[in-house]
C-alpha cells in the first residue's frame, strides 16, 4: 500500500474530482465571486458538494435546510438535488455573504428554489417552527453553536430526516485532549450530543480532500 503523504492526498483528490465531478461554469463562478468579495475560503470541497447533491437525491428530499450559506456554493449543489418544486431554506448571518450567494444562485438557475433568510441561526431558526418538516439539514456554520443547530435540526425535522454536520475532525484537533479552543469544544459537544441524544442515530467519517483533513457526521432523526 502506498504511504499517505500530503502530496499523494492532493493527487488523489485531483484525480477523483477530475474523474467524477464534471466541469461546471456556474460553480466555478460562484467560487470566483466568493474570492473576489473577500469571503473566507471555507466552502465545501467539490467532492463534498457532490455528496450533498447525491444525498438529497437519494432520499428524495423536497425540503432542505442549510445553516451557513457563505457564498452559495454548497447551496447550489443542494438546490440541484431537490425536484423542481423542492425548496432549500438557507440561513446566513452576513448580509454581504447573502448578496454574493443570491447572485450565484440566480446565475446557476436555481434561485427560485432557494430562500435565503438573513440573521444569526439562533434568531432565524425559531421562525421556521410550524412549517413543513425538513427532509435534509446541512449544518456548516459556527462550530460553537453546533448543539443549538442540532437541537433545531431535530425539532424542525421528522423521523428519517438526514442531518449532515460538517467539519467535525478539524485537522485531527478534535482528538487532541490539549486543544480546548472554542471551535473544537463546539465540535466535541456536537458529537457527544449525537451520541447521547435519543433523537439521533449517528456516525462520522474522516475526509481528506481539497480542504485538507476534516470530516462529517451523518445522523438520522429517529
TrEMBL record:
GO molecular function: O-methyltransferase activity; S-adenosylmethionine-dependent methyltransferase activity
Keywords: Methyltransferase, S-adenosyl-L-methionine, Transferase
Domain of life: Bacteria
The protein, known as: O-methyltransferase
Pfam families: Methyltransf_3
GO biological process: methylation
Amino acid at each position: 500500500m502506498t504511504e499517505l503523504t500530503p502530496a499523494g492526498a492532493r493527487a488523489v483528490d485531483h484525480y477523483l474530482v477530475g474523474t467524477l465531478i464534471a466541469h461546471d461554469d456556474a460553480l466555478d463562478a460562484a467560487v470566483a465571486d466568493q474570492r473576489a468579495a473577500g469571503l473566507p475560503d471555507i466552502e465545501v470541497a467539490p467532492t463534498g458538494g457532490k455528496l450533498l447533491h447525491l444525498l438529497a437525491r437519494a432520499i428524495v428530499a423536497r425540503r432542505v435546510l442549510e445553516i451557513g450559506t457563505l457564498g452559495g456554493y454548497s447551496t447550489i449543489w443542494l438546490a440541484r438535488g431537490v425536484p423542481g418544486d423542492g425548496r432549500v431554506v438557507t440561513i446566513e448571518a452576513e448580509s454581504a455573504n447573502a448578496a454574493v450567494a443570491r447572485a450565484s444562485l440566480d446565475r446557476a438557475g436555481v434561485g427560485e428554489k432557494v430562500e435565503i433568510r438573513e440573521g444569526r441561526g439562533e434568531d432565524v431558526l425559531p421562525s421556521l417552527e410550524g412549517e413543513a418538516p425538513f427532509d435534509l439539514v446541512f449544518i456548516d456554520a459556527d462550530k460553537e453553536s453546533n448543539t443549538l443547530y442540532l437541537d433545531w435540526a431535530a425539532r424542525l425535522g421528522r423521523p428519517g430526516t438526514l442531518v449532515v454536520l460538517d467539519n467535525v475532525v478539524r485537522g485531527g484537533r478534535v482528538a487532541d485532549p490539549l486543544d480546548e479552543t472554542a471551535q473544537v469544544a463546539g465540535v466535541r459537544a456536537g458529537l457527544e450530543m449525537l451520541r447521547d441524544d435519543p433523537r439521533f442515530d449517528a456516525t462520522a467519517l474522516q475526509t481528506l480532500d481539497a480542504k485538507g483533513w476534516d470530516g462529517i457526521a451523518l445522523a438520522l432523526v429517529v
